[in-house]
Every structure is written in C-alpha cells, then in structure tokens.
Amino acid sequence: MAKKKKEAEEEITKTKADEASEQETEAEAKTEEAKAEADEPKADETEEKSNKCEEKLAEQKDKYMRLAAEYENYRKRTANEKLMIYDDATAKAVTELLPVADSVRMAIENMGEANPEVLKGIELISNQLSKSFEKLKIEEYGKIGDKFDPNLHNAISKIDSDELGENEISQVFQKGYKIGDKIIRHAMVQVANCG
Fold first, then answer.
1. Beta carbons within 8 Å of 178's beta carbon, 6+ residues apart
2. d(CA 38, CA 41)
3. CA–CA separation, 174 vs 143, rounded Å?
4. Could you give the angle at which helices 116-135 and 2-109 cross, rounded to 10 degrees?
5. What stretch of H or E contains 185?
C-alpha cells in the first residue's frame, strides 16, 4: 500500500508539474502575445513618424525648388534689365551724335571736285564714326533697294517706277539706326510702287 500511496503521490506530483508546465507555457504565450501587441503600435507609430518625415521632406524640397526657380527668374530679369539700361543709355548718347554722322555723310556726298586731301580727311572721320558705332553695337539701316518696313522706315514720299519692285526703297533721305531690336531713329525714305 505504501507503494500505491507513493505512486499516487508521484502521479499527483507529475500532474501538478504538468499543470505548472502548462501554466508556464500559457503564461509565456500570453507574454509573447502582449509583446506582439505592444510591438504593433510601435510599428504603426514608426511608420506614421516615417510618413510625417517624408511629407516634411517633400514640402521642404518643394520650397527649395520654388526658391531656386524664383532666383533663376530674378537673375535673368536682372540681366535683361541691365542690358536694357545699357541699350537705353547708349541710344540716348548716340542720338546726340547722329546729326554729326548725317553731316559727315552729306559732306562726302556733296564734295564733288573738292581737294582730295579734304575728302580723304572727311572719309577718315566717317570711318571712325562707323567703327565707334560698331563697337557700341549700333546698326545703320535703310538702303536703296531694301523692302519697306513701316516698323523701321518712315515713308515721306512715294513714286511709281518700272525699274523698282513693289514697296522697294527708291531713295534714302536720312539713315536709320538701331541697337539690337531698339530703334534709335527711323530711316526717312521714298518708297516705290506702294499700293
């Protein structure tokens, strides 16, 4: 009987040990579930923080790109304004010299049989004036045979001619000058066969 009692006690102990082991296993499983549940919010929080950081980065990148574009536009606008100011100042100064250029041109045209040395001197002055205008990027326009353009030329008379084409310049009374696209002075011309 003592043997049976001992076996019964061993069986009870074994059962209790199995129950304790099962309880430990259940406790471990619950602990792991709790950890997993705790990790899930951390993962969500991390993902949320990551998304916020990406949004802030995209916002800052957009601001940077806009600022860079604004600066580039400012730089181009400033360069154009400087060029326009230079062109305006040059045009204003050249306007004062144009009567001198016209006088030199008329003197050469009307010299006829004057002293060749005098004619040579006036031609040198004319060449210097032309080179100065060239350095300043001043273009002279308005030649006989050019097509009439009301944006460039001022027609003060017209003629009919079989020798010249339609809207062709037949005579130039005063040369025109421009710097780039800016007209300093329109050319005064006579136009042939204008309709």
1. 138, 139, 141, 152, 184
2. 6
3. 10
4. 160
5. strand 182-185
d(CA 161, CA 191): 10
Tokens 């009439």 sit at which residue? 148
C-beta separation of 175 from 102 below 8 A: yes
pLDDT digits (tens, 9 = 90+) for 102-146: 999 888 888 877 788 888 998 999 999 999 999 999 999 988 888
In angstroms, rounded to a whole number, what is the distance separating the alpha carbons of residues 166 and 158? 11
Joined together, the tokens standing for residue 117 give: 């040395």
Count of beta carbons in the 10 Å neighbourhood of residue 104: 18
Determine what percent of the chain is predicted with pLDDT higher than 90: 36
Residue 136 to residue 180: CA distance in whole angstroms: 10
User: Are 167 and 148 spatial neighbours (Cβ–Cβ below 8 Å)?
Assistant: yes
Backbone angles phi, psi at 167, to 5 degrees: 55, 40
Distance CA 184, CA 98 (A): 10
Per-residue pLDDT tens for 150-193? 889 999 988 888 787 788 898 899 999 999 888 999 999 999 87
**Amino acid of residue 29:** A
d(CA 178, CA 91): 8
Listing DSSP states for 116-155 in one string gives: HHHHHHHHHHHHHHHHHHHHTTEEEE--TTPBP-TTTEEE
- Tokens, residue 155: 């027609």
